[in-house]
Amino acid sequence: MPHGREWTRTESRSPRARPKGKVCKRALTWIKPSFLWMMYRCGWGRKEGQETVLAVEITRDGFEWALRHACLSSFVRGAHPDLASWQSELRGAPARVQWDPERDLRLNPLPYRSLQLGLSGEAVRRYADDWTVAVRDVTPLAHEIHALVSGGDLDSAARLLPQERPYAASDDLLAHLRP
User: Fold this and answer.
1) In 3-state terms, what secondary structure has residue 143?
2) Which of 16, 65, 107, 171 has the fewest CB atoms within 10 Å, i.e. is most exposed?
3) Model confidence at 165, in pLDDT bands (50, 70, 90)?
4) Mind listing the pLDDT tens digit for each residue in 53-87?
5) What span, in angstroms and rounded, lies between the C-alpha atoms of 38 and 25?
6) Rounded Cα distance, 103 and 156, in Å
7) b/e per residue, 70-97, with b = 16+ CB within 10 A?
8) Are 94 and 119 a contacting pair, CB within 8 Å?
9) What is d(CA 55, CA 10) in angstroms, rounded to the nearest whole number?
10) Does position 132 have pLDDT exceeding 90, yes or no?
11) Residue 163 scores a pLDDT above 80
């Protein structure tokens, strides 16, 4: 990785892609660090409005800023003092986290969860202007892996998957985001 930066993937819905500096304040931009979860979400790049799949490399500092300033995307009894406190936190947070089941090659849910990070407002501006290091179109890769999975060649499909490893984060970075 250039300059020791970490990277993550994010989905891009091509019709909603915005030029640098043009940020929709109400919409969320979702970072999906799991390739297979992203494939589940965009249907291997075949869902309408999600035909382009981008791998976006961002800085580790940016990703961790978003985590530090995030709140859970839904109320969890025990994680929040009460519903009103969570709603207030959500309104003020520039990022939100949800934990969704990880996916296998057939996009079936696995028994563990992956973090999804939604950005809005200030976080989207920082993402677009400060954190993004590189953008690659991985749509052809998504289609190639999907074709192998559809043809039953899971071993070949697995060899093409991007290398992923658990994110090394301190407990204090994620403590407020665990349900």
Assistant:
1) helix
2) 171
3) confident
4) 999 999 999 999 999 999 999 998 888 889 999 99
5) 23
6) 17
7) bbbbebeeeebeeeeebeebbeebbbbb
8) yes
9) 6
10) yes
11) yes
